[in-house]
Amino acid sequence: MKINIEDVFNKSDLLTYVQLAGGKPDKSGGRYSCACPIHGGDNETAFSVYFDKGRWKWHCFTGNCGGGDVISFVEKWQRLNFVQACEFILGEKVSDPELLYKSASERLEEAHIEEQAARERKEARLKELQVAEKHLYYHKTRGAWARDMWNQRGLDDGIQDWFFLGACDDFSYKNKDVLYHSPTLSIPFLGEENELLYLQHRLVNPINPKDKYRPDMASREIDLPPFMAVPTMGLSFKGGLVIVVEGAIKAMVAWSRLTIADVQVIGTPTQGGYKNLTELLKDKKVIVIPDPKGNTTNENILRQPIELARATGGKLLTLPDKIDDYLVNLDVTPNGFYKLLQQARKP
Ligand SMILES: [Zn+2]
């Protein structure tokens, strides 16, 4: 049987296969979204089907399923190899797989480009983590100036030890291709096994005052994890209360001012970083304490804290100040903070 790869594409319908696999794709804009039919889960935007360069493609954003064209979807879904997937689509045996491979060369080349990009992203992440293994060194060698700065932020020496807070006297970073130097305060993000997930550097003398965390944002391919005040409890721990604030420092300040044992405080990795928490915090007792948004008109940033509270059935606590400033400036006691939390309301 003579066969061309185009026949395979012409005879296939990615959207139908996605539905057969259990996906319920919803159209929004030019693409379709649903929970990923390959790895499961119920995040309804985890999986995307879209039209690109003349072909229907798919991508899974939350699992390790990857993405590709209809053939790679059938491979993953039916656990078939390439030729078998083509046979599945054509509904007949392929007797000339060599030719099939040949005409697939363009497709394979595309796959290699994607593979290369994925490898580069991974390497960038590993490189960052190798550098990040310095967090204990930064903690031990932090100078008096850093201890003072941490103290001014409301984190005393004992809390600095607890969170392994540190400092780097001379950190170099790039801004628009120019190399700058600044001391930094370092914040390790630890995982459930207390393993290092990420090391955040807060520039003390940023070239742009709005970009204090520039070195972390430079490689946007790295997904910053949320900061957990009690790493070993994890993100989805059973029991108590989960408080969500914006950023690691606020999470540490808030946590250090609570005396309730059964509480996790999570710092969103970026201002818009609430979205990924929805799934993890479903059915937990959640209180979201967003920063006051001042003059922000960015709908997305305004909406996200409210949406997280709604989606988790949680509450929202709005304050006139950022939570860390509020607690530190008013010297709020644990009891006072506890009472404040009781003022949280359903959004
Ligand atoms: Zn998936």
| N→C terminal distance | 63 Å
Binned, the helix content reads: 25-40%
For the largest sheet, list the strands in their spatial order.
Answer: 1-2-3-4-5
Question: How many β strands by DSSP?
Answer: 13
The percent range for strand residues is 15-25%
Q: How would a crystallographer describe the biggest sheet?
A: 5 strands, antiparallel
Q: Give the ordered list of helices and strands.
A: HHEEEEEHHHHHHHEEEHEEHEHEHEHH
From the spread of the alpha carbons, the general shape counts as: elongated
Distinct small molecules bound, one entry per kind: zinc ion
Poorly predicted segments: none
Radius of gyration: 24 Å
Number of helices: 15
Strand-pairing-aware structural class = alpha+beta
Mean pLDDT: 82
Describe the structure.
The protein is of the alpha+beta class and 347 residues long. It has helices spanning 5-11, 14-20, 70-78, 82-90, 97-103, 105-132, 135-140, 144-152, 157-162, 214-217, 248-256, 277-280, 299-311, 323-329, 334-341, and strands spanning 26-28, 31-34, 47-52, 55-60, 67-69, 166-175, 178-190, 196-203, 227-228, 241-246, 263-268, 285-288, 315-316. A five-stranded antiparallel beta sheet has the order 1-2-3-4-5. It has a five-stranded mixed beta sheet with strand order 9-11-10-12-13, sandwiched between helices. Strands 6-7-8 form a three-stranded antiparallel beta sheet. The protein starts with a helix and ends in a 6-residue tail after the last helix.
